[in-house]
Amino acid sequence: MSLHIVLASGNRGKLAEFSSLLGERFRFSAQSDLGVEEAEETGLSFIENALIKARNASLHTQLPALADDSGLCVNALGGAPGIYSARFAGSDADDSANNAKLIRELKGINDRRAHFHCALVFVRHAEDPAPIICEGRWPGEIVDDARGENGFGYDPHFYIPELGCCSAELPSQQKNRLSHRGRAVAQLIQRLQSEFPAS
């Protein structure tokens, strides 16, 4: 029997990724499918925002909740867009607008080092005093010209030197294994399997 977990996101890409990565032992529903409104992200770090989102989803559904807060941190921009990655170009911005702003901000800057960061927070209930927290980091560089058709967000501009390609050029299975989210999920799987062993 699978554990039903609410994913504190309405992002279909993330729902598909988590379902693919965590397999049959855990069954996910997007919070939007359960009538949960998004929490206001008032934290100053990925962990703080993930915790806010997980507690909100659990509170409204009475289910265990998993929240992911992730984004792109660019060294030369002081870590920006960071926690504002999804709304870098404004609250209604789409991926293309965010990417366009990123490339504008980096015009004339030689240091293109960056990393994707992911914080995953799992709460057993809304007031869980000891949430499971896992983090993953994926280093790379920002390139001006978009490459690849896969992924979402900043993937077409995130270049991985050791692979010689951008994240959006990777097959989804390879990206899931290597990415910041994949690294955080690998830790989460171990934690969840030890806490919820197969019967």
UniProtKB/TrEMBL annotation:
<feature type="binding site">
    <location>
        <position position="70"/>
    </location>
    <ligand>
        <name>substrate</name>
    </ligand>
</feature>
<keyword id="KW-0546">Nucleotide metabolism</keyword>
<dbReference type="InterPro" id="IPR020922">
    <property type="entry name" value="dITP/XTP_pyrophosphatase"/>
</dbReference>
<dbReference type="InterPro" id="IPR002637">
    <property type="entry name" value="RdgB/HAM1"/>
</dbReference>
<keyword id="KW-0378">Hydrolase</keyword>
<feature type="binding site">
    <location>
        <begin position="180"/>
        <end position="181"/>
    </location>
    <ligand>
        <name>substrate</name>
    </ligand>
</feature>
<feature type="binding site">
    <location>
        <begin position="152"/>
        <end position="155"/>
    </location>
    <ligand>
        <name>substrate</name>
    </ligand>
</feature>
<keyword id="KW-0479">Metal-binding</keyword>
<comment type="subunit">
    <text>Homodimer.</text>
</comment>
<feature type="binding site">
    <location>
        <position position="69"/>
    </location>
    <ligand>
        <name>Mg(2+)</name>
    </ligand>
</feature>
<dbReference type="Pfam" id="PF01725">
    <property type="entry name" value="Ham1p_like"/>
</dbReference>
<feature type="binding site">
    <location>
        <begin position="9"/>
        <end position="14"/>
    </location>
    <ligand>
        <name>substrate</name>
    </ligand>
</feature>
<feature type="binding site">
    <location>
        <position position="175"/>
    </location>
    <ligand>
        <name>substrate</name>
    </ligand>
</feature>
<dbReference type="InterPro" id="IPR029001">
    <property type="entry name" value="ITPase-like_fam"/>
</dbReference>
<comment type="function">
    <text>Pyrophosphatase that catalyzes the hydrolysis of nucleoside triphosphates to their monophosphate derivatives, with a high preference for the non-canonical purine nucleotides XTP (xanthosine triphosphate), dITP (deoxyinosine triphosphate) and ITP. Seems to function as a house-cleaning enzyme that removes non-canonical purine nucleotides from the nucleotide pool, thus preventing their incorporation into DNA/RNA and avoiding chromosomal lesions.</text>
</comment>
<keyword id="KW-0460">Magnesium</keyword>
<keyword id="KW-0547">Nucleotide-binding</keyword>
<feature type="active site" description="Proton acceptor">
    <location>
        <position position="69"/>
    </location>
</feature>
<feature type="binding site">
    <location>
        <position position="40"/>
    </location>
    <ligand>
        <name>Mg(2+)</name>
    </ligand>
</feature>
<comment type="similarity">
    <text>Belongs to the HAM1 NTPase family.</text>
</comment>
<protein>
    <recommendedName>
        <fullName>dITP/XTP pyrophosphatase</fullName>
        <ecNumber>3.6.1.66</ecNumber>
    </recommendedName>
</protein>
